[in-house]
Amino acid sequence: MEPDGGPIPTIGVYKGVPLHDQQSDARLAVVRAEIDRVLDMTKPRELFDYAIDERNAPEARLLAEAMCESLYVLAAESRSLRPTINLDQLHAYCAGLNSQSWRNPWRYGSFACRDAVLREQPLEERQPR
């Protein structure tokens, strides 16, 4: 579920992951490389740590969040030992990463992300609703 404002518009999809708009070609290359990195991860703790790191691309963080949660749910459903991660904390760190109204115009992330990478150029001001 997205906070108010709806999801961030996308400009395409890479390996099933939507790419957020208003990014340079150089930045999109970074995002694609980060998505590849996440897709190579198999350990829930590694995915969790990646997802909560604000310096990582929002699209890759959202992917890591989804993969981490899936591994947790699969363990629970198969009555296996669940990963030692906190899903509520995971979701809290990733909240707003795909929200138009929470999108930080100066950084790649939400307004809650204080350590996110600075944008080369701030986003244009949004039009009032």
Feature tags:
129 residues; mainly alpha; two-stranded antiparallel ribbon; 4 helices; 2 strands; 40% helix
Task: Indicate the proportion of strand residues.
Answer: 5-15%
Distance between the termini: 20 Å
Strand order, largest beta sheet: 1-2
The total strand number stands at 2
Low-pLDDT runs: none
The Rg value, from CA coordinates, equals 15 Å
Note the main sheet: 2 strands, antiparallel
The percent range for helix content is 40-55%
What is the mean pLDDT? Answer: 91
Summarize the structure.
With 129 residues, this protein is mainly α. It is built from four helices and two strands. The protein has a two-stranded antiparallel ribbon with strand order 1-2.
Could you walk me through the main structural features you see in this protein, from its secondary elements to its overall organization?
By secondary structure, the chain is mainly alpha-helical. The chain has a domain at 10-94. The chain contains 4 helices and 2 strands. It has helices spanning 25-39, 44-52, 58-77, 87-94; strands at 10-14, 17-20. A hairpin with a 2-residue loop joins strand 1 (10-14) and strand 2.
